[in-house]
Amino acid sequence: MSNEAPTRSDSAVYDPDLRPELFDAILSKRVVAFVVDAIIIVLLMIPAALVVFIVGVVTFGIGWLLYGALFAIVALGYIALTLGGPRSATVGMRMTDIEMRTWNGGPSFPLLAVMHALIFWFSVGLLTPFILLVGLFTRRRQLLHDLLLGTIVVNSAPLRSFAK
Fold first, then answer.
1. Is 5 within a domain?
2. How many Å apart are CA 120 and CA 4, to the nearest integer?
3. Which candidate in 16, 19, 88, 142 could, as Cys together with 108 as Cys, close a disulfide (CB 3.0–4.6 Å)?
4. The pLDDT of residue 32
5. Local structure of residue 25 (DSSP, 8 states)
6. CA–CA separation, 45 vs 22, rounded Å?
7. Considering the domain boundaries, does residue 22 fall inside one?
């Protein structure tokens, strides 16, 4: 998928009534992508923890203070590089063939990806996971953090065929 926004009008591209294939099974695909990405982040934390341990030894224990922020550093770095990258999708999202777009069809970028992750975690943490049920009631299957940031998650294949 190129980084350019779709060439036709936004309303035609992202209208769930005109293009329902963009939103077919999006919520279930997002769940699978989340699980895959969580596993990848946990696996990435193993070498990161080893690096922090070595830095802690070299700095006589000062580097070990990074352990408290290790998950946030690894997870947000992963999100910024993948979801905020040129394909606008994490590894899990690529496996399920979905990607995130801005409200006007543009690709994601690192700051938007990090804000997307942070608002997701804060909304789930503060408002319970039941807040994810919002996706069942929105036409584009957007979750609360998608609505707040003006993003949508769509199936990649129909979007690619439409942009040709």
1. no
2. 26
3. 88
4. 97
5. T
6. 34
7. yes
Q: Which residue pairs from 126-133 have beta carbons closer than 8 angstroms and sit at least 24 positions apart in sequence? A: none
The total of structural domains in the chain comes to 1
For residue 2, being part of any structural domain is answered with: no
Residue 88 backbone phi and psi in degrees, to 5: 50, 40
Conformation bin of residue 101: beta by default, left when phi > 0, alpha when psi is -120 to 50:
beta
Between CA 23 and CA 99 the distance in angstroms is: 11
Q: What is the pLDDT along the chain (164 residues), one digit of tens a residue?
A: 445 545 444 555 688 888 889 999 999 999 999 999 999 999 999 999 999 999 999 998 888 888 889 999 999 999 999 999 999 999 999 999 999 999 888 899 999 999 999 999 999 999 888 888 999 999 999 999 999 999 999 999 887 776 65
Residue 161, Cα to own-chain centre: how many angstroms? 22
Q: Cα(46)–Cα(115) distance, rounded to whole angstroms?
A: 25
Whether 71 is in a domain gets the answer yes
In Å, what is the CA distance from 9 to each residue of 13, 39, 66, 162? 6, 37, 47, 11
Both tokens of 112, joined, read: 């938007």
- The C-alpha R_g of the chain, in whole angstroms, comes to 18
